Amino acid sequence: FGVVTFFATMPPKTQKTTAPTVDTANLKGDAQVMEAVTTAFGELRNAKSALSAIPIIRGLCERPEKWLEPYLIEALRHFLPSFAASKGVQKTIEDTGKAIINVSKSSSVRMLLTRLHEGMNHGKWQVKEGSMRLLEQLAKKHPLEVGKCLPETVMHLIECLQDTKPEVRNCALQVFKAVASHTVPNPDVKPIMNDLIVAYGDPVNKTQGALDQLMQTTFVSTVDASTLGLICPILRRGMTERNALFKRKAAIVINNMCKLVVDPRYAVMFVPILKPVLERGADEIIYDDIRENCENALQTLKHVAGAAIEKAEMSIDSAKCKDIVTDAIVSNTTTCKAVLDANSVIVEFVASQCLHLVECDTLEIGDWTQGTVPYLTVIMSSDDASKVMEIVRNVCKEYIVVTVEDVEEGEDVCNTEFSLAYGGKILLHNARLHVKRGHRYGLVGKNGVGKTTLMRNIASKAVEGLPEDLKTVYVQSNIDVDRDMSCKEYLAHAPELKNCSVDELDKMLTEVGFDEELKAKSVFALSGGWRMKLALARAMLVDPDMLLLDEPTNHLDVNAVAWLTKYLVGLNNVTCLIVSHSTSFCDDVCTDIMHYESQKLVKYPGNLAAFVKKRPEAKSYYALEADTLNFVFPVPGRLDGVKSKSKKILKMDHCTFTYPGATKPQLTDCTCSLSLGSRVAVLGANGAGKSTLIKMLVGDTYPDSGEVWKHHNVRIAYVAQHSFHHVEQHLDESPVAYIQWRFANGTDRELLEKDTMKLTAEEQEKVQTVGQVECLLGRRTRAKQLEYEVKFHGRPEKDNRYWTREKLIEEGYEKLVKACDEKIASEDAGLDLRPLTTKEVQRHLDDFGLPQEFGTYGKILGLSGGQKVKLVLAAAMWNCPHLMVLDEPTNFLDREALGAFATAIKGFGGGVIMISHDKEFWSALCTEIWNVENNRLMIEGESGNDDVEVEVAKKRVVEEELTENDKKELAGGNTNVIKEKEILVDFFGKPLNKKQIREVQKSGGGAEAARRINAPPGFKF
User: In whole angstroms, what is the distance from residue 343 CA to residue 710 CA?
Assistant: First the structure.
């Protein structure tokens, strides 16, 4: 261009006295344009005359010459401080900056950000504010490239969010949100993005909420530099909080995020930030589990950093690129080193373009020519510029990786690689989901690996890389309706079935087994099996590409399972993903098995049996046993007058039940009984009345005629068919917190809140009437009759009376009697003595296979179906029941958990009655069969244990002294016992009565003095 020593020929600052005027629109030739550039930079070097260069720079932005870009970017650095000038010129400066950004290429973003970051660190607040507004424009113009550099940008924005000047803080909050929305494509983070940004502005009050949201986020999209850049600072803040729970949450998320990063070079950017706080946590935190989380996160961070270092040896940085470009120019052209030093703007810009091409793994000649040659011609001939480009490209070839994907034959429904996590746990990491049309894949893995989470994310199209036109239907075991409607109405109101005619809907219901009566029946009144059939009918009408079936055999009887199997096998053009713990169903249906292995999805052709042959260690999918998992059920304890396991503790005599509005009884003349030795399986077709029978037995419903009797102190653990209803009101709490809430008063709160236990408005008014029974204070046995101490409303205690059970029920106080019985039964189980500390509750959850990670620190919302069943079982068994009533207990439990459950039932000291369609399960445990058919109950076989004595549970439930933390925890809840209470017994081991205990306490003799009571005369101790 005739001007190759650009900066060397710029006039000194003192030579300028008047503002130059340059008509940039009419410049002719590169030489005149370069002269205008020289003039503009001469003005920019002088702070007093810098503003006069703005019109020239703005005019140059409209010129067509590509080689102007490096000079325009350099000009930005010089005129940004002019934002601190008078308000009248700030708009002009901002418009000029935006003009530069608008003509820039995406490959120039890194250079532009360097200039803007300098402005955001300027001492003048106006310069900070102006630089941030330009940053917002840059993110809007080049979102992908700004996202790659977001980690560094976020740190500058956080500093501005905490600036002392309110104008800077307000601008930073607005720009931060805008930049994040443009540059962070991760759809998993977008819902919590604004909350994270607000937390950066108010870290003291908002950090905990932000960490909780991160723990609950399911990550299915690629975690890139922009995502990490947004999340990393909040994690560092969490690790520096004094609260140890904050550190635990942050450490878990750090561990997971590092595992989910596709390119290790992204994660290595955060090593200097996160490594020191993790090391401090691993060294200083006193809690073993939290310290372990920090150590695990630190190891993962070091591993990723090591992988990034290895990759860095095969990569290139900006300094190395600049050396390659400089060496190629000096060695192969007549351009000397002095010229390059004088035109360092060009050399730096060309080096940045080469680095961008290498990072994009681009070898195309056209891309390299456009990115280098137009700018090199400023300091050399066109031929020399092309020669330099070829040399630089050849040198950079070794840093470019070209991947070739294997092509698999057949029609793909989906072929994508993705990651999946649920905040606190990595589920899948860079896993490939590759499925073919017409295949039926069985998803196999233990409870909690993420089978249901994967299916839900596929159904919602949240998995990255799914075809946009893929039609999926997700069918789960329970269907939800927001109002009472018939089965026909349920299908007619489904939005995806709006184009189906009434005849089509009616025909499909008929095909799945609905008669006219069932079609008109309310969805609420359907049994679990019929609800599943209704959900399947809805799915079939959609005609999907991919059918997602989550435990489809739950609640289905044998005939329904056979029908479902035949239907699925006949689907030749539909791909099925199936989660089922029924081995026979998987063998009959699946063409392939997709197994969870080391956070990957590994495919095995063939059914489950073929898979087990290839992976013998997976034989547990067939064996009803557990090698690594144990359930420990508590000992039921004594019942007054029951000394043999064959003695009846609950019975039903000639009971008939009819649902309101029904024309005929659901059950007629049913007679049965249960004892501590009972092992009963209730069998029957869907809708036969099995659950109805169970509800009558436990007292949830009352028979029209007949009598249901149970022992007044019997404790029942009832796990209903739709067992999740026990915990659905506590999804945001931990399992430990749920149990603490449920048993906070020494009784089962959920039991007392049942409709059969709660007083109606009329009953409430009655007990508040003067002279009427207000409450029952206690119970005694007199002349082999139960009598209750009655407190009358408005009367003093001296007027209390003892009434028999029969009289109270006759007077309409049956609910008060039940409540009193339940309270005494709970006390007999030791619930009033059992401390509800986190340690004690977690110890109980451990007995049911729910470890601390999920029991203490997790939330119920994040539990898998199998883990929720374990929680429901653990909560039901907290009161040491005498009788377990299980309605479809095997749903959602994997084979290992099912084996542990079966083993625990075999050793359980109480009675068990279950409804189950899993013959393999109930046949191995039950000796007595109750068949419900044609509204009648028929009993086959009988339970044994006639001569087995009842095992007596000790009331001592605390095995060790409570810690100070436990005592503090008890202060707001169950404070009845802080230390273990010693049970004093006489010579024969019989507990002392209150009078004898007082005598022993007065003597100060303790347990030794108690043993002397009732000792034979002359016995020597």
Answer: 97
The neighbouring-strand residues paired with 657 are 667
pLDDT at residue 985, rounded to an integer: 72
Token reading at 185:
């494509």
C-alpha span between 628 and 964 (Å, rounded): 33
Contact 922, 655 (CB under 8 A): no
- In angstroms, how far is CA 833 from the centroid of its own chain? 35
Report whether 496 contacts 539 (CB < 8 A): no
User: How many Cβ atoms sit within 10 Å of the Cβ of residue 904?
Assistant: 19
- Which residue spans within 713-762 are E strands per DSSP? 716-719
Tell me the CB-side half-sphere exposure of residue 749, using CA atoms within 13 A: 10
Instruction: Give me the residues paired with residue 716 across strands.
Output: 883
Burial of 484: CB neighbours in 10 Å, binned 0-12, 13-18, 19+: exposed
Q: At what angle do helices 125-141 and 109-120 cross, to 10 degrees?
A: 160
Question: Which H helix or E strand runs over 367?
Answer: helix 365-376
> With a cut of 50, which residues of the chain have pLDDT below it?
2-17, 404-408, 955-961, 968-970, 972-981
Give Cβ neighbours of residue 680 (< 8 Å, ≥ 6 apart). Answer: 674, 911, 912, 913, 914, 926, 928, 929, 930, 943
Torsion of CA 579, 585, 589, 591, to 10 degrees: 70
Whether residue 94 contacts residue 80, with contact meaning beta carbons closer than 8 Å, is answered with no
pLDDT at 315: 67
- Say how far apart CA 706 and CA 655 lie, in whole Å: 4
* CB of 340 closer than 8 Å to CB of 349: no
The span from the CA of 553 to the CA of 916, in Å, is 11
Prediction pTM value: 0.55
CB atoms within 10 A of CB 360: 13
Q: Which of 885, 486, 936 is nearest to 666 (CA)?
A: 936
Q: What pLDDT, on a 0 to 100 scale, did the predictor assign at position 578? A: 92
Quote the strand ranges of 678-749, DSSP E.
Answer: 679-683, 705-710, 716-719
Q: Find the helix packing angle between 69-79 and 29-44, rounded to 10°.
A: 20
Query: For residues 995 and 984, what is the distance between their CA atoms, to the nearest angstrom?
Result: 12
> What is the identity of the amino acid at 959?
E
Q: What whole-number distance in Å separates Cα of residue 437 and Cα of residue 410? A: 8
Do the Cβ atoms of 614 and 584 come closer than 8 Å?
no
Rounded Cα gap, residues 649 and 463, in angstroms: 53
Angle between helices 87-103 and 125-141 (to 10 degrees): 30
DSSP state of 991: B
On the 0-12 / 13-18 / 19+ scale of CB atoms within 10 A, 441 is buried
Return the pLDDT at 589: 92
Q: How many angstroms separate the CA atoms of 414 and 436, rounded? A: 7
**What CA–CA distance (Å, rounded) separates 324 from 173?**
41
Cα(228)–Cα(744) distance, rounded to whole angstroms?
A: 42
CA dihedral for 837, 843, 847, 848, sign (positive or negative): positive
Within a 10 A sphere around the Cβ of 961, how many other Cβ atoms? Answer: 10
Q: Judge residue 874's burial from the number of C-beta atoms within 10 Å of its C-beta, 0-12 exposed, 13-18 middle, 19 or more buried.
A: buried
Residue with structure tokens 């420990």? 632
Non-local CB neighbours of 549 within 8 Å, separated by 6+ positions: 475, 568, 576, 577, 578, 579, 580
Residues 935-944 as b/e (b if ≥16 CB within 10 A, e otherwise) read: bebeeeeebe
CA atoms within 13 A of residue 232's CA, in its CB half-sphere: 27
Alpha helix (H) ranges present in 555-650? 558-569, 583-589, 608-614
Give 86's DSSP letter: -
Alpha-carbon torsion 24, 28, 34, 36, what sign?
A: negative
φ/ψ of 867, rounded to 5, equals -70, -35
Task: Count CB atoms within 10 A of the CB of residue 3.
Answer: 17
> CA-to-CA distance for 1021 and 1014, rounded, in angstroms?
13
Which structure tokens are listed for 938?
A: 């028929």
- Strands 785-792 and 801-804 turn out to be antiparallel
